[in-house]
Amino acid sequence: MVNVIKLEGVNWERDQKRIIQNIQWEVKSGEHWAILGANGSGKTSLLKLITGYEWATNGKITVFGEQFGQTSILEIRKRIGWLSASLEERHRHYNGLTCVDIIASGRHASIGIHEELSDHDVERAYMLADQMGLSKVKEAQLGTLSQGERKKTFYARALMAAPEMVIVDEPTSGLDLLAREQFLNQLHTHHQKERSPTLLYVTHYPEEIVPAVTHVLLLKNGEALAAGPKKEVLTNDYLSEAFDVPIHVAWRDERPWIQISSLENIGSK
Ligand SMILES: Nc1ncnc2c1ncn2[C@@H]1O[C@H](COP(=O)(O)OP(=O)(O)OP(=O)(O)O)[C@@H](O)[C@H]1O
Fold first, then answer.
1. 86 lies in a domain?
2. Which residues line ligand 1 (CB under 6 A)?
3. Res 88: pLDDT
4. Most exposed residue of 20, 71, 97, 199, measured as fewest CB within 10 angstroms of its CB?
5. Mean pLDDT estimate for the chain
């Protein structure tokens, strides 16, 4: 299997603090990964290293077989779709655009539509809207969409340029129970298909790891506590250590549901 991501001995330091510590990690084509960890464990920092927004202090990073330092980061970024809260926070720039316009703007990774779109691009934007269950709101303006509809719109936007990898960074904040499950269901449906883009799903919550996710990278204090097939990583012991609280995992319908087994002393953590 071809390597989509390979990190060898990667460290990242800032202000004399080692934020990412000696990460060895390989993502192969056909795998979908969750990056899981508590607040401050290094998830966002790792994403910045993979997308070239920050440079590793040392170690080797290879994405799509291209080694950083010997390749154009811009060319690599064109092959990655990214759904992140920071993109949505800029939603005032999207004022006046409809749901389908925003999806289409992912074609050239722009805010708004500046370049000419082909008929094929427009068709694809409508098709993605339908696939995401946004048929009824495709012509509605962003400001009128619910949070759940917005998340789906930006996820469709991340898929618009047919990326080889899609990064979905903590997408469920602000979603109610049903909207969260609907979003996760879309994600699962899309990524269980053969030849779907490699998924990197970043979350604090194990129960958001949908069946389509095959592997988990569990971070703690910038280190990989465990990395591998999800059932080997999402164990009581690893999760309890990662989140500093005793955790019990129960698998149901191929989803890991967690229970905090003891709330004693939790307030002092
Ligand atoms: N540019 C920076 N300069 C200094 N420290 C930083 C910088 N970026 C991140 N950090 C620190 O590195 C640690 C990891 O941060 P990071 O944002 O990667 O964690 P995270 O797992 O994404 O957290 P969260 O789940 O809360 O979003 C934190 O202690 C953070 O304060």
1. no
2. 14-15, 19, 37, 39-45, 204
3. 58
4. 71
5. 90
- Asked if 99 contacts 142 with a C-beta cutoff of 8 angstroms, the reply is yes
Which amino acid residue places its CA nearest to atom 27 of ligand 1? 39
Is residue 49 in some structural domain? yes
Where the chain has pLDDT below 70, the residues are 1, 86-93, 109-115, 263-269
Mutual angle of helices 119-131 and 147-159, in 10-degree steps: 140
Q: Whose C-alpha lies nearest to ligand 1, atom 7?
A: 14
Examine residue 151 and state whether it is found in any structural domain, yes or no.
yes
> Of 137, 161, 185, which residue sits at a domain end?
161
Whether residue 169 sits in one domain with residue 73: yes
Which of these, 38, 30, 42, 44, lies nearest to 1 by C-alpha position? 30
Domain hosting 56: range is: 3-79+164-268
Q: Which pLDDT score is estimated for 66?
A: 93
225 and 97 belong to one structural domain: no
- Look at residue 112 in the predicted model and tell me its pLDDT: 53
Q: Which of 14, 21, 43, 45 to mutate to test the pocket of ligand 1 (most atoms within 8 A of CB)?
A: 45
Are the C-beta atoms of residues 22 and 8 closer than 8 Å to each other? no
CB atoms near residue 178 (< 10 Å): 9
Task: Indicate which atom in ligand 1 lies nearest the CA of residue 46.
Answer: 18
CATH number (domain holding residue 8): 3.40.50.300
Helix, strand, coil % (nearest 5) of the chain? 35, 30, 35
